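Re: [ENG-882] Designed sequences occasionally contain unexpected residues at chain ends

Forwarding the minimal case from QA. C-alpha cells:
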C-alpha cells in the first residue's frame, strides 16, 4: 500500500481549497514540505493544477477528514485498499538529467567493452537507455561511434559504484550457473572493483618464450660435455708447431 495518495500535489491543492486542515497535516499526508503547502495556499506553487478529491477517489474517508479538521494534531491516514496489498511500484528506465544524456553513449561503450557479460537489460537499468541503442553500440553501427570513447559511468555520475558492482556480481552468478570456464581477465571483470584490486596477480610466462621455461644456462648432461670436449681442439696442437723438412732445409742453408 502506498504511503502517500495518488497525485499528491493535486490532492494537496484540493485539501487547501476545501478543508480547514493545517499546512502540516496536509504536508504529512501528501508527502510534501510544509512551506510547499503554504506556497500552494499563497498561489506561488502548483499554479494551474486542478484539485484532486481524495474522498471521492477512495483514498480518504470523510470520517477521517472530519476527525483531522477537529484535531490539528491528528495525522490523516490513507484508506485501506486490499487490492493494493503486495503491489510493487513499476520501475521504468532510470531517469537521466539532460546535462548528462550526451555522456550515455560513452558510458554504454565502456560497459560493453569492459563488461560484455552484462545483459542489455542491466546496462539499460544502470545508465537509463534503450536496448536498440545498446545493440547499435555493441555492433558499432551507432551513428556517432567514431567520435565516442569509453568512459566509466560511475565517473560520469550516471550510476553508483555499488549498483555497478551488484550488476557485475549478478552476471558472475549467472556465468557460474551456466558452467562457463572463465579466464583470469574475465574473472576480474566479474567481481567488484574492491575484490579485483585485492586479488593476487599471477606470474605468467610470455607466449613468445613458451617452451623455454625448462632451459637452464648452467649444468648439462655428462654425455653432452664429453662430446663438446672431443670437438674442442687440443691446446698442444694450437701452440706447438710440428717439425717439418722445410725447417731442416732452412737450417742447412
Amino acid at each position: 500500500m502506498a504511503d502517500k495518495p495518488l497525485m499528491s500535489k493535486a490532492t494537496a491543492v484540493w485539501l487547501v481549497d476545501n478543508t480547514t486542515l493545517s499546512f502540516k497535516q496536509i504536508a504529512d499526508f501528501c508527502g510534501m514540505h510544509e512551506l510547499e503547502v503554504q506556497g500552494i495556499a499563497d498561489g506561488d506553487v502548483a499554479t494551474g493544477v486542478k484539485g484532486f478529491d481524495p474522498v471521492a477517489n477512495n483514498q480518504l474517508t470523510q470520517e477521517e477528514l472530519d476527525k483531522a479538521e477537529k484535531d490539528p494534531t491528528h495525522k490523516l491516514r490513507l484508506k485501506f485498499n486490499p487490492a493494493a496489498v503486495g503491489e510493487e511500484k513499476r520501475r521504468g528506465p532510470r531517469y537521466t538529467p539532460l546535462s548528462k544524456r550526451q555522456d550515455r553513449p560513452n558510458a554504454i561503450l565502456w560497459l560493453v567493452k569492459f563488461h560484455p557479460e552484462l545483459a542489455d537489460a542491466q546496462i539499460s537499468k544502470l545508465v537509463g537507455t534503450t536496448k536498440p541503442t545498446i545493440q547499435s553500440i555493441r555492433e558499432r553501427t551507432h551513428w556517432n561511434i567514431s567520435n565516442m570513447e569509453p568512459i566509466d559511468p560511475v565517473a560520469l555520475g550516471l550510476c553508483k559504484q555499488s549498483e555497478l558492482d551488484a550488476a557485475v556480481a549478478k552476471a558472475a552468478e549467472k556465468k557460474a550457473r551456466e558452467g562457463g570456464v572463465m579466464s583470469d581477465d574475465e574473472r576480474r571483470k566479474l567481481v567488484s572493483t574492491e575484490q579485483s584490486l585485492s586479488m593476487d596477480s599471477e606470474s605468467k610466462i610470455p607466449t613468445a618464450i613458451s617452451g623455454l621455461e625448462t632451459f637452464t644456462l648452467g649444468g648439462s648432461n655428462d654425455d653432452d660435455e664429453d662430446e663438446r670436449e672431443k670437438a674442442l681442439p687440443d691446446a698442444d696442437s694450437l701452440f706447438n708447431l710440428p717439425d717439418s723438412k722445410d725447417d731442416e732445409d732452412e737450417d742447412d742453408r
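QA comment: On inspection the terminal residues look reasonable. The chain has a mean pLDDT of 75. Proposing we downgrade this to a documentation issue.
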